Amino acid sequence: MAHREPPRLRILLAQECARLMAEEGLADFRTAKRKAALRLAVTDKGLLPDNREIEQALLNYQRLFQADHQPQRLQKLREAALNAMHFLAHFRPKLVGAVLSGTAGSNTPIQLHLFADTPKEVALFLMEQHVPFETGERRLRLGNGDQVCLPVFRFSAGDHDFDLTVFTSLAEREAPRSPIDGRPMRRAGPMEIQVLLAEHQH
Fold first, then answer.
1. Of 20, 25, 51, 83, which has the fewest Cβ atoms less than 10 A away?
2. pLDDT reported for residue 201
3. Domain for residue 141, yes or no?
4. Are residues 157 and 139 in the same domain?
5. Model pTM greater than 0.90?
6. Domain for residue 192, yes or no?
């Protein structure tokens, strides 16, 4: 069967979601969809783009309208991520999310996955290092489809916000499902980030 092009309105909605995320700092796909549908007076939920289409539209938008500053901003975020990964090396950190995929905006937190026997280990480490943090939780879907609630530690350092999700040591082998396309979430270790930084140096 031939691949059908998405309807024009769906493309416009994806572009409007991308603009909202790039210009107004919206980090949540659901909020962006709701606002874009209101702006374009679309009531049919079947016309809403999926998260993957929005992510692609966001990359296109940044390439077109933010080429003068977005690459430098992304480079700074990735440098800060690498520094944090060295700082948190004991917990085998992996970078995930918009800073890794390249769609990060000005308010995007640097998301890291950490691995520890208990979340308390991470809390004690941050306290010993005199890093003030807030706690929260994040609901994620595992590879087998199970939903889990995991502890999150948030703190700021310099100009950047960090968001650390703590997994058990065994969960390092299998990434949770991405909220964007349902596939295993892409995770990158320090070596991969160094390669990304080197690629974009010139």
1. 25
2. 65
3. yes
4. yes
5. no
6. yes
Same domain, 51 and 133: no
Which of 82-86, 122-126, 127-131, 140-144 is predicted least confidently? 140-144
My answer on whether 100 and 164 are in the same domain is yes
**146: domain CATH number?**
3.30.460
pLDDT band at 1 (very low <50, low <70, confident <90, very high): very low
Domain limit, last residue, from 65, 87, 104: 65
pLDDT of 157 above 80: yes
Look at residues 65, 82, 107 and tell me which one is the last residue of a structural domain. Answer: 65
pLDDT at position 160 is 92
pLDDT for residue 2: 45
